[in-house]
Specification:
about 325 residues; alpha/beta; 9-stranded mixed β-sheet; two-stranded antiparallel ribbon; 10 helices
Length: about 325
């Protein structure tokens, strides 16, 4: 463990020097609670709950919302005609019946695809089988981000900017900023990306929207406690990274003292079990990005944990 910590510290210093960031160390408790810390615990449906429904489809988002998810998480890429669509991968092959890169397809072309093709719900989009009651074939295609935002006008979102290289990340950041401003959706949104330049470009274009920093920003904060980019409202972190536990009570308490909410994602970094959920809730995480919203919802209900708009027990009684 010691060698892993040393490696991370060295890596952070190298990143810091290479990128020319100004060091801004925090002092414990020197910041007031941020806006996302004032909220009750959040059940965040990662990709709409990709462990239970086709990833990033309108069906997944509608289903998660009906289950009680408090926030929806999604990923965006841009089409050839500069429309942001909700998809995790840069290519459509893994989740649809199509082939090739999102960037090479128009919105019209990409929305002909069956986004549930590699699931038990394949064929609904193409009319080969009927949709479940209350849903339509359009719920099983690749939605545009505008369609999702319009369908859920009151729902908080985490939107992750994806890309294939620095240029595409920056392009997608600009498109996202323009869309959110055009739709007047600059509140109840957190914009995230692994790419720090995408986050910086987005912030320049839409400074009022809350951020979760990129990989380098989180790494510098984790190892050296250097503040992430201005506009940061939450740290979205894995359960662990290369064998190092990240979402620990100590780290979460430190982030809280600096005014940041902590949202934890899984994506293979830990088993999504009730035991794992319980340990992270007890560590005072502000929200969990679950691929299995049904499991998380049942756990939260049994524990009687307060959620936005509900009465219950605070997930973290010591939180402000």
């Amino acid at each position: 463990m010691r060698s892993r910590r040393t490696w991370l510290i060295v890596a952070a210093v190298v990143v810091l020097l290479a990128t020319g960031f100004v060091v801004h160390l925090t002092r414990p408790g020197d910041s007031p609670p941020g806006p996302w810390m004032a909220r009750p615990f959040l059940s965040i449906a990662h990709q709409g709950g990709e462990g239970e429904a086709p990833s990033n489809t309108m069906y997944a988002f509608r289903r998660a919302a009906a289950l009680g998810a408090d926030m929806l998480e999604m990923d965006v890429h841009a089409t050839a005609d500069d429309v942001l669509v909700v998809m995790h991968d840069a290519e459509v092959d893994r989740t649809t019946d199509g082939h090739g890169a999102v960037r090479d397809k128009s919105l019209r072309d990409i929305q002909q695809l069956d986004a549930a093709f590699h699931s038990e719900l394949r064929g609904i989009r193409t009319g080969d089988r009927p949709p479940p009651p209350g849903y339509s074939p359009d719920d099983f295609t690749v939605p545009s981000l505008e369609q999702v935002l319009t369908r859920f006008p009151q729902t908080p979102f985490t939107v992750e900017i994806k890309g294939e290289n620095d240029d595409s990340f920056v392009r997608n950041a600009r498109l996202l900023a323009a869309l959110l401003q055009r739709l007047n959706r600059t509140r109840d949104i957190i914009v995230a990306s692994f790419n720090d330049e995408a986050i910086a470009e987005f912030h320049r274009s839409a400074p009022s929207v809350g951020l979760a920093p990129g990989f380098n920003g989180v790494l510098r904060y984790l190892t050296l406690r250097i503040r992430p980019i201005d506009g940061t409202v939450a740290l979205q972190i894995p359960v662990e990274f290369q064998g190092l536990d990240v979402a620990t009570p100590t780290f979460i308490a430190r982030a809280h003292s600096d005014g940041y909410a902590v949202h934890v994602w899984f994506s293979g970094t830990a088993a999504e079990t009730e035991a794992t959920y319980n340990s992270l809730i007890d560590a005072c995480a502000d929200g969990l990005m679950s691929s299995r919203p049904t499991t998380l919802e049942h756990l939260l209900d049994r524990r009687g944990i307060a959620r936005p708009g509900t009465v219950g027990t605070a997930a973290c009684p010591s939180a402000p």
